[in-house]
Amino acid sequence: MNKSLKIVFLLLLVLQAAPLAAQKIGYIDSEYILNKHPDYAIIQQELENISSEWKKEAQNLDKQIKELTVQLKAEEVLLTEEMYQQRLEDIKLKQKESQEFNSRVFGIDGQYFQKQAELMQPLQSKIYDAIERVTRRNNLGMLFDKAADPSAIIYTDPRHDYSEFVLEELGIEDNKQ
């Protein structure tokens, strides 16, 4: 009796583990998919336009600081100590203004990155939905992103690349030659 109980238990264990071994795994290259999507180029251009405007503003602030510094050096001998200190304070104030502007616009949670997230969110949602449909259609247990920043993928077999399926799901034709 004890031996038959062990056999039944072992059989149940094997039947439970079988579906785990049969899970399919694949990967995509989200960077490749993004670069193929026509909306991505439009978003990148819009971000570039916004960024160049903010960079011009930052350069103007830096130019003003430089001009004030040059002017102070030129008039240094003509100024009283009090006037010299006042102009020095004006320069420091302008430098602080410049740093705050750069931090507010280009900092970690700056306006540039907020705008980027705002513009990219609809496209990312579209791509994610396509990835989900491809994953379900192909019965994948896991799908990795080869382009993810701290990627642990060392080698990929092209047979398991589902990027083309995602592009197809998005209605984007690949122009490979």
Structural write-up:
The chain is mainly alpha-helical and 177 residues long. It is built from six helices and two strands. Helix 3 runs antiparallel to helix 5 and helix 5 (111-137) crosses helix 6. The radius of gyration is 29 Å and the shape is elongated. The model has no long low-confidence stretch (mean pLDDT 84). Belongs to the Skp family. Residues 1-21 form the signal peptide. Pfam families: OmpH.
Key traits:
two-stranded parallel ribbon, unfolded protein binding, 6 helices, elongated, mainly alpha, Skp_dom_sf, coiled coil, Chaperone_Skp, 177 residues
Q: What is the N-to-C order of secondary-structure elements (H for helix, E for strand)?
A: HEHHHHEH
Whole-number radius of gyration?
29 Å
Strand content: 5-15%
Number of strands: 2
Number of domains: 1
- Decide which structural class fits the backbone: mainly alpha
Question: How many H/I helices?
Answer: 6
Average pLDDT rating: 84
Q: What general outline do the C-alpha atoms trace?
A: elongated
What is the end-to-end distance?
A: 67 Å
Note the main sheet. Answer: 2 strands, parallel
Oligomer: single chain
Strand order of the largest sheet: 1-2
**Residue ranges: pLDDT <50 for 5 or more in a row?**
none
- Helicity range: over 70%
